[in-house]
Amino acid sequence: MRDLNCESDAKVRLMFQDEAGFGRINKPKYCWCKKGCRPSVPCHHIREYRYVYGAVEPLTGESCFLVLPYCNTDCMNVFLKELSETFSYDTIILVCDGAVWHKAKSLSIPDNIKLIFIPPYTPEMNPIEQIWKEIRKRGFKNEVFPSLEKVVDRLCNTICSLSKFTIKSITGRDWILSCF
After folding, report:
1. 18-22, 42-46, 64-68, 140-144 — which is least confidently predicted?
2. Looking at residue 126, which CATH number applies to its domain?
3. How far apart are CA 45 and CA 161, in angstroms?
4. Is residue 169 part of a domain?
5. Spatial separation of the C-alpha atoms in residues 125 and 97, rounded to whole Å
6. Count of structural domains within the chain
7. How many CB atoms are closer than 10 A to CB 176?
8. Whose CA, among 53, 63, 139, 170, lies 20 to 30 Å from 1?
């Protein structure tokens, strides 16, 4: 029997990382209704959030997501540790934007992760941005949540509904795939 987690199976992974906030505040979205009827869409402005840290590999659709309470260096450290453990036998080239917590002196980068940064103000270069749009479309359209716990539950369920194929199809841009 062969051990699938041995060093000879190690890969170099190109992954794209970002964070996104999800909360009880919502923005009404377009919806269908009968002609002549005006749709009623619930809306509220309670400012409670949780943040999803995510990393995706466009080539395979592999991913790692973690819901955390803040966007800061401490939470980024927790995410990097989780990502490192999830792909412990691989070297990860992690493409990030230039958020302050990505470059903080107190950031603890695991040995198997190497950070590189996209130029400032270029979110279009980070394909995980499209994953956030897909999560919002699938799980957060025209709904009011009674608690932050319900937001986190929906967030986790929506993330789990994303197959590797879906992630690959959303993030697999030609300029990334042509590198391989």
Report:
1. 42-46
2. 3.30.420.10
3. 27
4. yes
5. 9
6. 1
7. 17
8. 63
